[in-house]
Specification:
Layout (H helix, E strand, L loop, with lengths): L13 E5 L2 E4 L2 E4 L2 E3 L4 E3 L11 H6 L4 E6 L8 H9 L3 E5 L1 H13 L4 E6 L3
Parallel strand pairs: 6-7, 6-8
Antiparallel strand pairs: 1-2, 2-3, 4-5, 4-8
């Protein structure tokens, strides 16, 4: 799906998503990604674990992590939610399309948001 966001101040904008991956600020990423306001990283583990999502905590400055879980919602372990909460980060799980759109809107509002995105298979 093609999105048509306005790029606020050179930040990482999710422009497109599909079964094979994402286009973020003109760069194509195959597979899952972690998107921050200042950079996008491949998410090779793509697991809902503290270990695979540790780069979000390490990045710093994130107040909300959007989890794009593909085409359907999936439960997120209470322990993972608690781990993020202890780091001062709220966690919101949704389908990938909604996560991409929400990320772009919140970024345009200068919110400190990040997204962990699985391609919608």
């Amino acid at each position: 799906m093609e999105l048509t966001p306005v790029n606020p101040a050179g930040r990482q904008i999710i422009e497109r998503y599909g079964a094979s991956g994402f286009r973020v600020s003109g760069v194509i990423y195959q597979g899952p990604v972690l998107v921050f306001s200042d950079r996008t990283l491949p998410w090779p583990a793509a697991a809902l674990t503290a270990e695979s999502l540790a780069p979000v905590i390490a990045h710093g400055g994130v107040e909300l992590l959007l989890l794009g879980l593909g085409r359907r919602m999936a439960p997120v372990a209470a322990s993972l939610r608690a781990w993020f909460k202890s780091g001062g980060i709220a966690l919101e799980a949704m389908d990938t399309g909604a996560a991409c759109r929400t990320y772009n809107v919140l970024l345009a509002e200068d919110r400190r948001v990040a997204a962990a995105l699985l391609p919608p298979f």
